Amino acid sequence: MKRVTIKDIAEACNVSKATVSYVVNGKLNKVSPEMVKKITAMMEKMEYVPSLSAKSLAGKGSKLIGVVIPQVDVTQKMIFDNPFYSEFLSGLEYYLRQAGYSIVLSVINRDNCFEDMMKKWNLDGAVVFGIDNEEMVKALGNQKMPILLIDSYTTNRRFYRMNLRDEEASFVATTLLVEEGQKNIALVTGKVDKSILLQRRLSGYKSALEQHHIPFDPKLVFEGDVTYEYGVQAANEIMGMSDITGIIATADILALGILNQMQASGKNIPNEYSIVGFDDTYQAKMMYPKLTTIGQNISRRGELAGELILKIIHGEQTEKEYFMDFEVLLRETTRKRD
């Protein structure tokens, strides 16, 4: 849909662009009250959204990169509660700042938020996290700007993507616990039906169990919000089951809740429970004991995302899908069973 401009409003009201500009910029002393009312009504009727980028209005690149995090549940404070995002954004912002770009951060919870954001800021490109919902993919696909998706497995070839090898990483994490001698391994995760990424991690968990001839038990999969609080809740449920001794958390923030709650309940980690996290956020190194986790160098990943989106904007050759490496970081929350 074509963006409504000051020129469109001026033509509809039969006034000059300067007159409309005065109203848009709050210089109401230069326009009669009747004309202000007429122009304001026309702006609402035509759904005019003022551009916040002067450079874009001058016909130049805005040097603005949108960073979009979809959030279906608007009551969650996901960005600030989960250190994955702050570490990723730190690397992304640093790289883009060195290249003369700035970021515009937005959390969206409905399909048309994409269009509202793009029109408002006149972005040169966007980095978008975790898009799996087909309606959101469709809405995003209507935008004409370069877009890089992070942790998305959409098959839409319109987009460039940066992913971790999630199924393989989960397979390795599960195998680590199996080789320690664990037989009953819980998986604490976000809501699998809402995320292809989490479906891949569940698949890797299942594959590792199958390869080691351990039956998959759906009762050992605990699904909830990816928050510290749900980690605490899952820990209580796990401690109420007598046979679980190994735990994989699909995010370090979940592992932190599990670890703290178990220790507060008098459990010894890793003697009674082995715990493996995902991400290697700064918290993983600060926990006591320090968390064994699947590391993906989040800040560096953010820098690479900045490099990729600028290559896409400038028309440079790059892969449609870029996979990040991961590593197993053995620390203090796992040990071999006797």
From TrEMBL:
Transmembrane segments: none annotated. Keywords: DNA-binding, Transcription, Transcription regulation. One of its GO terms (molecular function) is transcription cis-regulatory region binding. Pfam families: LacI, Peripla_BP_3. It comes from the Bacteria. Residues 4-59 form the HTH lacI-type domain. It comes from Faecalicatena contorta. This is Transcriptional regulator, LacI family. InterPro entries: HTH_LacI, LacI/GalR-like_sensor, Lambda_DNA-bd_dom_sf, Peripla_BP_I.
